[in-house]
Design a protein that fits this description.
The chain is of the alpha+beta class and 317 residues long. It has helices at residues 2-25, 57-68, 75-92, 117-124, 128-140, 169-173, 202-212, 249-255, 287-295, 300-307, and strands spanning 43-48, 51-56, 104-105, 145-149, 152-153, 158-159, 195-200, 226-231, 237-242, 245-248, 263-267, 272-277, 285-286, 312-315. It is 36% helix and 20% strand. The chain has a three-stranded mixed sheet with strand order 2-1-3. The relative contact order is 0.15. Bound molecules: zinc ion.
Length: 317
């Protein structure tokens, strides 16, 4: 009799434990509970609309990922973005000369774009809960993960989309950075405005060139103003002469307000037309390329190691 009682107790215990075990096995995809953003343990001071606000690094990163990458993107792409943004933030914190009082600001031309949670959710409409969870997971599931080169935080630059290949940092800014070298990038026609066209009158072109390079000589047929263009293998302008003055493709992009330095120019007597591919400076991780890689089954680590040559993805203390 005692044996039967013992056996029944054991059976009862086993039956009780099995579902508990299953419950622990469950992944978050199987549950309806919203993803939780963990504390990073590191506070950052952010300059937002002229005011300083202190917040946890992960809370800040949530707003950066939401602002910098479409939430409809693949989860692994969003995770790659979260790691790039975390690395960029820790590397840049307190280094910006524009705002010595703040670690980072919300101006994308200085630091990184950032959007408050309520504003992001209003923009997302009926997808607000799904996208909130997705971005929370991207930050939470990469918690403390950063990209390192020879053990040091990298300058994790990223951009929207590239034309065939990314750019060498040295080609854009003149300084060689070993992990920011040109690599193939798989995005293409799925990118909104992947191809764009900008047309100026010859006078508008002249004004733009002269305001940047007053020594340029611009007379007669506009066809003679654009010479000696040197292209990278991926089709970006490395250098070109504007009225006899050599500029980089990056400078030409700024002068003519183009979406990228991957462009061709078609000068005619009464108009000058630029055909542009991609968007951004082209250095480091391409966001649309990251999404294409994720759709192809690549992990966020693989995406980061593809775009940042020779790095490791590790936990940073
Ligand atoms: Zn800044």
């Amino acid at each position: 009799m005692k044996k039967i009682v013992a056996a029944a107790l054991i059976l009862g215990l086993v039956l009780f434990l099995i579902p508990m075990g299953f419950r622990h096995e469950k992944t978050r995809e199987d549950t309806d509970s919203p993803a939780v953003l963990p504390e990073s343990g590191k506070a950052v001071t952010i300059l937002i609309d002229g005011e300083l606000r202190e917040m946890d690094l992960n809370e800040y990163l949530w707003g950066v990922v939401a602002a910098e990458m479409p939430a409809s993107f693949e989860l692994e792409a969003l995770k790659a973005q979260a790691v790039a943004a975390r690395t960029y933030s820790l590397n840049k914190a307190g280094q910006a000369a524009n705002h010595p009082e703040a670690d980072l600001c919300t101006d994308h031309t200085c630091c990184q774009a950032w959007i408050p949670r309520d504003k992001a959710q209003a923009n997302w409409g009926e997808n607000a809960q799904t996208y909130t969870d997705k971005i929370t997971r991207a930050v939470a599931e990469t918690n403390s993960q950063v990209a390192l080169y020879e053990g040091a935080l990298i300058s994790a630059l990223y951009h929207s989309s590239s034309a065939d290949t990314t750019q060498d940092a040295v080609a854009v800014w003149g300084g060689n950075v070993p992990y920011l070298t040109s690599v193939p990038s798989p995005e293409g026609e799925e990118v909104p405005n992947y191809h764009s066209t900008v047309t100026y009158t010859p006078q508008e072109c002249k004004d733009r060139i002269l305001s940047a390079k007053p020594e340029a000589v611009l007379e007669g047929d506009p066809a003679n103003w654009f010479t000696n263009a040197v292209y990278s293998e991926g089709g970006s302008v490395l250098t070109m002469d504007l009225g006899g003055v050599t500029v980089t493709g990056h400078q030409a992009r700024t002068i003519f307000d183009l979406r990228s330095a991957s462009f061709t120019v078609e000068p005619a007597p009464d108009s000058v037309t630029f055909q542009v591919t991609g968007y951004g400076h082209g250095v480091g991780m391409s966001q649309y390329g990251a999404n294409a890689m994720a759709a192809d089954g690549k992990s966020y680590q693989e995406i980061l190691q593809h775009y940042y040559t020779g790095i490791t993805v590790e936990s940073y203390e």
